[in-house]
Design goal:
With 347 residues, this protein is an alpha/beta fold. The protein folds into two domains: 3-23 and 257-345, no CATH class; 24-237, Spore Coat Polysaccharide Biosynthesis Protein SpsA, Chain A (Alpha-Beta Complex), CATH 3.90.550. It has 16 helices and twelve strands.
């Protein structure tokens, strides 16, 4: 068997093996779930210098057909108009107080929000999220108890945001259907308390990963879905530097915490992408393999964000960018970073 046939056969096997990953990226149909519990939901939004994002999120909440019990914005010592904007929109503003020693900012804000909330269900939302019409009810309709996360759909607006393509794809693929993301987490109070709440993960940069482990260890259930048509967000829209620093922060730790079976599947898929790049250098027939991976990439990206089809057609560009940033996260930049005026030191 010549090298041409070997590489084409290997690439074809890798392409077929990655089809389950494509299927995982589709949100399940809505059922009855907890649709009738919307008036028992306390929405908790940890916010530090989020004056630019909060109006969009709060307006999307206001436009939902049915309203939650309450909306709490935990103003984590912001230096902008975060608190004033939240109050003007009708949210209840919580001041968590000074950040205690050994706590990270987001877990502290979430913990304080949970203490002040009165609902049976706690919905933690990052400030850069925004609901699609009817999105809140769709989340409740898919909620089957325990801890339930929605991986937001990336609403891409600026050209440099296209570089998040691989990161978004891998983040969602490594989360659904049994792990959690931190951008949108719905959990009942009993499960929250049994797992120790955010106090149990107060030192973690990727608190969602460790919180999922704590919930399962305490007998709770964790599940997640992609958020297309339900919940959107913007990831690092400010600049390429913000994007690089944001994804560098803790990304290697997230990979290390991904279950081995899932990590193996994603690594095998990335290996297939590399095979698709090499194949045309070995044989002209290799362009068929490249095209197959490019089309598969386009289909996957459509399920996680409004990325341009060009990201799939020229996928080596976003793949190389991903690998460079990932390698950067393995070094000092991934262990120590500054985010919103605070130094983050990875364990």
């Amino acid at each position: 068997m010549g090298p041409e046939l070997i590489i084409l056969t290997a690439g074809a096997v890798q392409w077929v093996a990655s089809l389950p990953m494509l299927r995982r990226l589709r949100a399940p149909a809505a059922g009855a779930g907890g649709r009738g519990m919307i008036r028992e939901v306390s929405v908790i939004i940890p916010a530090r210098d989020e004056a630019g994002n909060l109006p969009v999120l709060l307006e999307s909440l206001r436009l939902q057909d049915r309203q939650p019990l309450e909306v709490l914005v935990v103003d984590d010592n912001s230096t902008d108009d975060t608190a004033a904007i939240a109050r003007e929109a009708g949210a209840r503003v919580i001041s968590p107080g000074p950040l205690p020693d050994s706590w990270r900012g987001k877990p502290w804000a979430c913990a304080r929000g949970a203490e002040e909330a009165t609902g049976k269900l706690l919905l933690f939302l990052d400030a850069d999220c925004r609901f699609a019409p009817g999105g809140l009810e769709q989340i409740l309709a898919r909620y089957m108890g325990g801890a339930f996360a929605v991986c937001p759909y990336h609403a891409v607006e600026k050209p440099h945001e296209q570089l998040s393509a691989m990161f978004n794809l891998i983040m969602v693929a490594s989360t659904v259907p049994t792990s959690l993301v931190g951008q949108c987490l719905l959990i009942d109070r009993e499960t929250y308390q049994q797992a120790g709440g955010y106090a149990a993960v107060k030192t973690e940069i990727l608190e969602n990963v460790k919180f999922a482990e704590r919930i399962r260890a305490s007998g709770g259930r964790t599940s997640s879905i992609p958020g297309k048509g339900i919940l959107n967000f913007r990831m690092y829209p400010g600049s390429i530097a913000e994007l690089v620093n944001g994804w560098t922060k803790g990304f290697a730790a997230g990979a290390a915490a991904t279950p081995g079976r899932v990590l193996f599947g994603i690594s095998a898929w990335i290996g297939g992408l590399v095979t698709g790049i090499i194949a045309p250098c070995v044989t002209p027939w290799g362009w068929l393999l490249y095209a197959a991976f490019a089309l598969q990439m386009i289909a996957m990206l459509r399920r996680v964000g409004s990325f341009s089809p060009l990201c799939g057609l020229v996928y080596p560009v976003v793949l190389i960018f991903y690998l460079v940033v990932f390698l950067r996260s393995l070094g000092p930049a991934g262990r120590k970073a500054t985010w919103k005026g605070r130094e983050l030191h990875a364990a």
